[in-house]
Specification:
Length: 210
């Protein structure tokens, strides 16, 4: 009898939020967890997000707290804000290193890595994990205009799954969606890292105009 498939999820929170927004649906994180628990032994579900430093209240905090209490391993880092030479406020919130370190450390224990991101910077990580015998599934979308996944990342993956194909399984019921103003407030902090997902997904500085 073969052993169950050992799966680990690595969710780039800002990237997944931006991808789902481009496809016009909200992620139901409880359903997402249940979906992958049904596919094998779920070793870990990591969720990575940046939180603005010195912000008295972060509107992403309720989501982060819920995930932390409901089966996810949440990894956060405080972003740095500064004014560049042209007077624009810039926010740095790169979680790539944290995700890569966790993936490499867990690689010897998992059979399948599921990466929720379209960031081309992860191509080298995917290749390194594959060399250790792990199959990698990348989840993003080519259905949005422009596509949200870097071509090199999509080619490197063993399996590419378009997020739109999972909407029926992991999307929130439209009747449960908060009102637009509430939804905007809830995800405001995600919108800062979201702007890091620039064309070709290279570079991780987001620029906000004053």
């Amino acid at each position: 009898m073969s052993s169950p498939n050992k799966i680990a999820l690595f969710i780039d929170g800002a990237n997944l939020y931006a991808t789902a927004k481009a496809l016009n649906f909200d992620i139901d994180y409880k359903r997402l967890l249940n979906e992958f628990q049904s596919r094998g032994t779920l070793l870990r579900a990591f969720y990575y997000t940046a939180i603005i430093e010195d912000q008295e209240y972060s509107s992403i905090r309720p989501l982060v707290d819920w995930l932390d209490y409901n089966g996810y391993t949440v990894v956060t880092k405080r972003t740095k804000e500064f004014i560049d030479v042209s007077g624009r406020r810039k926010v740095k919130g790169d979680m790539d290193v944290e995700l890569a370190v966790d993936a490499m450390e867990l690689s010897e224990h998992m059979d399948q890595m599921v990466l929720f991101s379209g960031d081309g910077d992860f191509r080298s990580l995917v290749e390194a994990v594959q060399r250790r015998g792990v199959r990698v599934t990348v989840i993003s979308t080519i259905a949005a205009h422009p596509p949200m996944v870097a071509d090199e990342l999509r080619r490197q993956a063993d399996v590419f799954t378009d997020l739109i194909e999972l909407q029926a399984k992991i999307g929130r019921n439209p009747s449960e969606r908060p009102a637009p103003r509430q939804r905007e407030a809830r995800y405001h902090s995600e919108q800062v890292p979201e702007r890091e997902t620039t064309a070709e997904f290279k570079g991780n500085d987001s620029v906000l105009e004053e």
